[in-house]
Write a structure and sequence with these properties.
Cytochrome p450; binds protoporphyrin IX containing FE; 51% helix; disordered N terminus; disordered C terminus
């Protein structure tokens, strides 16, 4: 802390119009980048009077927040009760056992046990399974003339992969998807939606019962997957409790679905809107790993995350008080011209592309290797089997989720259904 820093609400502050809350406006939701640009240039460490939180948009500051600030942001039952939100207590109780909301040393312990369960070997084992799912989803639509890329491909693919990853019946994937969508509405949003609480509570209750039953059933009948691996992971005699296994199955299940769906959906939209880049990729599919990184940077699926200041800290000339909330906007950091040349241009051949779409430091995405592999298979299969996709004319509708950036639907035309069928025959 230094004494020269300006406390919140003092000094020259841009007006209240400069708020992340504008993401609720449909035109800002459709294109948040001008708002991020204003925040980054006019007030990069900004006290948002509507959100009662600091909003940080420069790459270097986002890195510092993710590296140094506390992830222990879940409100205590006492706090929730005091502000009249006691109904949320069961959700908060479960979230405090999720690795995402912990600091060291509790986080280090949990992450180490989870990593022992989710090894590179386990991720690699999912590869052929993911390819089969991708192909069978396209088999179902390839003979037609159009599809909704989200409904028909980008949504079910991660849901089915998640079932396999957890080690539960594939037939449960629609249920996993529905729970995950409910929980994501709460995770990704700022706005307080009292009407949604009963539904999220019900989902949390159902997911908890589902995973508890699966853990117990797998004691006698183990299945390959994360539920069993987390239940049996052991480091120096230390193991996860049943509540910890449940809480972290839930965070992994939610973390792995909405984000991956949005990477595929937003990514395909970005390519269709930038035909030169799509053409480069189609012509040489070996660009796919590089393209995935660029699509993660360009339309970041998880736009921001929240931390708390661990002490009074100076950042960008502002004084952030201990325990004040700080929103680190990865979607803005990934478009920072100080870090990325010509940041608003999609360039699938970009080098030195160290984006923050998977976060940074201790909480760096636990599922990043799986997400990357899944996206690579998804794009490779789509481009090989449906090489002539075009956007259907009409307005695009973005989901009203301010953190998890994604479309409600992505209608596309399969210009040449025949080539899709030939691609399938060639593949299989
Ligand atoms: C494109 C897909 C994905 C994106 C963009 C993404 C993004 C992120 C980000 C930004 C974080 C850090 C959040 C923070 O620091 O507050 C994170 C953490 C996490 N992600 Fe992902 N994720 C993706 C896929 C996955 C998958 C497939 C899984 C599951 C296998 C997963 C599981 C997790 C978990 C468990 C954490 C918490 C890690 C920790 O706290 O130590 N994610 N993810």
């Amino acid at each position: 802390m230094t004494t020269s820093a300006v406390p919140a609400h003092q000094g020259t502050q841009p007006g209240p119009s400069l708020s992340l809350y504008h993401l609720l406006d449909p035109e800002v939701l459709a294109n948040p980048y001008p708002l991020y640009h204003r925040l980054r240039t006019e007030d990069p460490v900004h006290w948002d009077i509507f959100l009662h939180a600091w909003v940080v948009t420069r790459y270097c500051d986002v890195i510092q927040v993710l590296h140094d600030f506390s992830a222990d942001v879940t409100p205590t039952p006492e706090h929730l009760t005091a502000i009249g939100l006691a109904a949320l207590n069961p959700i908060a109780q479960m979230m405090v056992s999720q690795m995402l909301f912990m600091d060291a040393p509790a986080h280090t312990r949990l992450r180490a046990l989870a990593s022992a369960a989710f090894t590179p070997r386990r991720v690699a084992m999912l590869r052929s399974h993911i390819q089969e799912i991708a192909d069978s989803l396209l088999d179902a639509v390839a003979a037609g003339s159009s599809m909704d890329l989200l409904r028909d491909f980008a949504s079910p693919l991660p849901a089915i992969v998640t079932a396999g990853m957890l080690g539960v019946p594939v037939a449960d994937h629609l249920q996993l998807k529905a729970w995950s969508a409910d929980f994501a509405e709460m995770l990704g949003n700022f706005q307080y939606n009292p009407d949604r609480i009963p539904r999220v509570l019900k989902s949390v209750e159902e997911m908890t019962a589902y995973f508890r039953a699966a853990i117990r059933e797998q004691r006698d009948h183990p299945r390959e997957g994360l539920i069993h691996a987390l239940s049996t992971a052991e480091i120096g005699g230390d193991r996860l409790s049943e509540e910890e296994v449940i809480a972290n199955c839930i965070v992994t299940m939610v973390g792995g679905q909405e984000t991956t769906t949005n990477l595929i959906g937003n990514g395909m939209l970005s390519l269709l809107r930038n035909p030169d880049q799509l053409e480069t990729l189609r012509a040489d599919l070996s660009w796919i790993p590089s393209a995935i990184e660029e699509l993660l940077r360009y339309e970041t699926p998880s736009q921001h995350t929240t931390r708390m200041a661990p002490a009074d800290v100076e950042l960008g000339g502002k004084l952030i008080r201990k325990r004040q909330a700080v929103i680190a906007v990865m979607g803005a950091a990934n478009r920072d011209p100080e870090r990325f040349a010509d940041p608003d241009r999609l360039d699938i051949t970009r080098v030195d592309n160290r984006h923050v779409a998977f976060g940074w430091a201790a909480h760096f995405c636990f599922g990043a290797p799986l997400a990357r592999m899944e996206a690579q298979i998804a794009f490779e299969t789509l481009l090989r089997r449906l090489p002539n996709l075009t956007l259907e004319p009409g307005p695009l509708v973005w989901r009203q989720n301010l953190g998890l950036r994604g479309l409600t639907a992505l209608p596309v035309r399969i210009a040449d259904p025949e080539s899709a069928a030939r691609g399938a025959a060639f593949h299989g």
